[in-house]
Write a structure and sequence with these properties.
Shape: globular
Structural class: alpha/beta
Distance between the termini: 38 Å
Helix content: 25-40%
Number of helices: 7
Oligomer: single chain
Radius of gyration: 21 Å
């Protein structure tokens, strides 16, 4: 027997219903294959997530990762709910801005950002999580050329082992991502940034991996 999630059901004709829509009718109208998103389900999931964390942190900003699904309609729904955006490419950044998300509510991650991407981010006051010294220097140069002050965070490597596949464990010391904490590299990066007149350090960022189901490493 097919076990349906709570937001799916079968109607009296045995047709799959997504939200309140008959999947057979949708297929007849739009053809197949067809992706169907349940707006109410998206809103409920966002609200549940926000509620859980806002009970602990007052000034909370949830940033939806566009790498999960960058469909403009979905991003607009989340923007309407108050979400910010986590982006990792020019295309994702443009979609987030196009959905009406303010640059101040967008975080730009990734370990190789092009000059064009950095210019777009700085122009829109996006928070840039820098990954290495070369990128930090590039952000400072570009911001100076644009007569802007760039907001940056530092991606730090905390050397934390997470229970996930080795290929997607990104917080180990040998990982290629971020400034190493144990060696003092992260502190040196902060000290260098503090001397840059066109860079404002506003936070730190860490990502220890994906598909982690155990809260202990955090």
């Amino acid at each position: 027997m097919l076990m349906l999630k709570e937001h799916f059901r079968a109607n009296d004709m045995g047709h799959l219903v997504v939200g309140k829509l008959d999947a057979v009718d949708l297929a007849k109208t739009f053809g197949t294959p067809l992706y169907v998103m349940d707006e109410q389900r998206i809103r409920e999931k966002y609200r549940n997530f926000h509620r859980a964390f806002s009970s602990l942190w007052r000034n909370l900003l949830v940033c939806y990762a566009l790498k999960a699904n960058s469909n403009l309609a979905i991003v607009k729904i989340l923007q309407n709910e108050g979400s910010g955006a986590d982006v990792s490419s020019e295309n994702e950044l443009r979609i987030a801005l196009g959905a009406g998300i303010s640059g101040k509510r967008i975080v730009f991650n990734g370990n190789y950002k092009t000059r064009r991407e950095l210019e777009l981010a700085i122009a829109n006051d996006v928070l840039i999580n820098v990954d290495n010294f070369q990128e930090l220097e590039a952000v400072d140069r570009i911001a100076s050329h644009m007569d802007k002050r760039a907001r940056v965070g530092f991606r730090v490597n905390p050397d934390v082992r997470a229970p996930t596949h080795p290929y997607i464990a990104t917080g180990l010391r040998e990982s290629k991502f971020g400034f190493d904490v144990a060696s003092g590299q992260a502190l040196k990066a902060y000290e260098r940034a503090a001397k840059m007149k066109d860079v404002e350090v506003v936070g730190i960022h860490a990502h220890i991996g994906s598909q982690i189901l155990d809260a202990a490493p955090y």
